[in-house]
TrEMBL record, chains A, B:
Gene3D superfamilies recorded: Aldehyde Dehydrogenase, Chain A, domain 1 (3.40.605.10), Aldehyde Dehydrogenase, Chain A, domain 2 (3.40.309.10)
Pfam families with a match to the protein in the record: Aldedh
Enzyme class: oxidoreductase
Natural source organism: Microbacterium invictum
Enzyme Commission number: 1.2.1.4
InterPro entries recorded: Ald_DH/histidinol_DH (IPR016161), Ald_DH_C (IPR016163), Ald_DH_N (IPR016162), Aldehyde_DH_dom (IPR015590), Aldehyde_DH_Superfamily (IPR050740), ALDH_KGSADH (IPR044151)
Name of the protein this chain belongs to: NADP-dependent aldehyde dehydrogenase
Phylogenetic placement of the source organism: Bacteria, Bacillati, Actinomycetota, Actinomycetes, Micrococcales
Amino acid sequence: MTDPSDARTAASPTDILGASVIGGRSVRGGDGEIAAIDPRTGVELEPSVGLIGSEELDRAASLAAEAFSRFRATTPLQRAALLESIAKNLEAIAEVLADRVVLETGLPRVRAVSETGRTTGQLRLFADVLREGVFHDARIDRAQPDRSPVPRADIRLRKIALGPVAVFGASNFPLAFSVAGGDTASALAAGCPVIVKAHGAHPGTSELVGRAIADAVAANGLHPGVFALVFGRGEQIGKRLVEHPAIAAVGFTGSRRGGSALVQAAARRAVPIPVYAEMSSINPVFLLPSVLADADALAASWIGSLTLGAGQFCTNPGLVFVPAGDAANTFIASAGRRVSAAPDATMLTPGIAAAYADATAKLSRTDGVTTVAEGEADDEIAHSGTPQIFAVDASTFLSETALQEEVFGAAGIIVTVRDVGQMIEILKGLEGQLTVTIHGDQTDEGVSQLIATAEERAGRILFNGWPTGVEVGHAMVHGGPYPATSDPRATSVGSLAIDRFLRPVSYQSFPAELLPEPVLDANPWQVWRQIDGTPGKV
Amino acid sequence: MTDPSDARTAASPTDILGASVIGGRSVRGGDGEIAAIDPRTGVELEPSVGLIGSEELDRAASLAAEAFSRFRATTPLQRAALLESIAKNLEAIAEVLADRVVLETGLPRVRAVSETGRTTGQLRLFADVLREGVFHDARIDRAQPDRSPVPRADIRLRKIALGPVAVFGASNFPLAFSVAGGDTASALAAGCPVIVKAHGAHPGTSELVGRAIADAVAANGLHPGVFALVFGRGEQIGKRLVEHPAIAAVGFTGSRRGGSALVQAAARRAVPIPVYAEMSSINPVFLLPSVLADADALAASWIGSLTLGAGQFCTNPGLVFVPAGDAANTFIASAGRRVSAAPDATMLTPGIAAAYADATAKLSRTDGVTTVAEGEADDEIAHSGTPQIFAVDASTFLSETALQEEVFGAAGIIVTVRDVGQMIEILKGLEGQLTVTIHGDQTDEGVSQLIATAEERAGRILFNGWPTGVEVGHAMVHGGPYPATSDPRATSVGSLAIDRFLRPVSYQSFPAELLPEPVLDANPWQVWRQIDGTPGKV
């Protein structure tokens, strides 16, 4: 292929070209190449990916800026149709997509299939959000011409799209937190063009999804700048994307180091912009006295959650607190037996497998840390991680701050503590978390105070369950205080995620003919709104 | 007075001690002194103010941290009662307060009285917001135990307070944007303790208000760490406050330089925090063809808005665009006559008066800028500013970026342009604004595109009015893209301001006994909420 601009017409939706998608067309960059690796075999996958340079990145950003005004002015129903088109396009290539996910990530096929469902469900959730219309936050303060000493003007408010959004996909959810993931779905729903910087670990998957989105954009008659997918070096193209004047906000899922670098870069801009980075969490679990009789069953369900997907979840429950005593011993022994029997698992990338091996080796060498059990290594897998669990007492945990760092993978630490009071003290000192899990009930002494402390430390608190498996709904918060995320006011999963990409605008004394629909007297879109501070669908 | 901790019992609500308020008590700092100046006479006012050092600042922050958990757990009705107590305490000292405002700011007494009403009205608005309960953003996603392939858990969401908030008051609204202003009212409403760094221009006013708040905190049986007022050097105490680990968010109204410095300091923290800084805006006004027959009347109302309060409003309309021609000439001539007749006005501080004199002198010397008229100086006033207006053509305006910088005071620039198309082009290139004002109607060609452009440049758009006089209501946005504010997702005026100081938390599979009230099945507080995505008061 000599002319990259021909790529789109040439390619079927299931072809992988190793190309970015800019302006609705495939563009194979010429600034170096990368290749994905099958982590099960260690073999490089075809085709290689051509990385774009600054010029192509700037073109994608300019197109997004150009597309913005018209895209944000589309009706919510038009954007709902776009999201549903994307979902349908993904479903049409679901088999090829699942195959490629398995190749590039080593995740089991059943997971690839379920993640496709989650991704399309997420797109359709935002279509529902657009139809319901709460997101407009429409408000009307009626004029009071006779108010004394001065009359009150008619003032109305609605929220509009913030501007083009840069999205950095995660390694661990090649679909649901990647090219067509929650950040993209919520930004498009808000009316923001999106530029996705693809994760290098699953480029073929990214390209298939990226073209599915671009095709939906075209089929819905929208400006081709509404969506772009770019492959490029993070320190060059990623940074340039965040610094580009056209970009108004950033969504990121990944490491603490990577997220913090974007936060800093965004704050240093001439016009600072918000960064929603989901980064690091160890998701502490507290076992309260009322459940300790079930220590064996709890150990079984914990190990199930800990080892799910080779432990490669942001909400992986890596830390369990249990009151010292017989039940704790039962819990530790039972968890140990199950880990010993747990299979070695393929990790997402060679780098992640190596980091996991380093971190667990470091844990096992730490003074006061007992290695409880380790799964058996499987030499057939090129880049794997064996589940491992460790035990420490509270004083060791408190003195070794390294024990509070996230280990990405199926490593768990059991901390034996004195009582619930000590749990609360320790939780107060932990960094911000995505989740806190409590096993217990209302009869446990101190549980209310533990919950209150958890509210200040985490975005989501669970009872008698496990934090892996994040529901995509209206009441979900996938967020939390730093470093769980860079902005505790936001969630990256669930319908509230749209609020990250909106800003309010007031309309004072407007002629009715010039008002936007959500604040027209007749309420033609039938949105929920506040009239003089009273909520209703009027 | 030898023991500063006795100050509170010793002082009546109308005494001014030159002291900070920490832990519910007056604390006269020993780290240097400042004195306010009566800008009408140039005379230093008694008493001097004792500035606090780092140790006292840290104590205020520690007390706020200590107060946080209990304060955020108060019911909305308890916080409504606090806000109403503060309003009553201010009303009880209204006469003394107004006298002191006049002394310290040179503002007319009628303004001091009306601003007291605005401040108490603002406190009561947030009491209403607390009673209505929309701010909880309560959501319930009901369990689906039979869902396939996996059941859905019961998940509920509400918003909680972010943490202690640092507030930096403005010079130009000694009451409504200062110690008990919108930032403080909305943060307290959210359940966040507040530490106000007082503005040095009106310390006596600040102290009276600060003690009114502290007294209300005590009378409502709340922890004394819920509120503090500190006097200290900005570069030392202000910076330390923003950097203090106990502080979770910052509200600021002031200069672009000051606000940007806080934004940078907050981003460099180990745990970055949001800064809501309202900074700089020139509030462009566009006169469209349909209104040009009223050029004379428009000039009169413009000069009224421009010179109100010596032009010392963030929403002062400093820039008027008018199509070149006879009507523009009438407008300029009429505005000029009125400015020549406008009285010299006292400015807030010697520094503001000097900066205004510098900026207007620079404008008058700029190539292509015509000085249309200037008010008459009044040598009786020590620190005054004469209203001044200037005229330029579009090409001069576009080539001289200095013409786009805010001049704080009653200086206005009239820009003659070709047509509405050129207005739109110019508006696209302007920095972010608090307001854009349009005089015209739906018959003006290009008006829809002008509005669409204004939406992307400003937080509020007005028709056929003037932007000074910001209503405190539910639909008000006092915000906008950078540098109008540091965060266009927020407003610092109106009920939506509470959202700045809240964050969402999810509760998954909670025992009913342990759920917070806004998401209890019975909805005991009768808050508006979403059940499975459907809004209602159920």
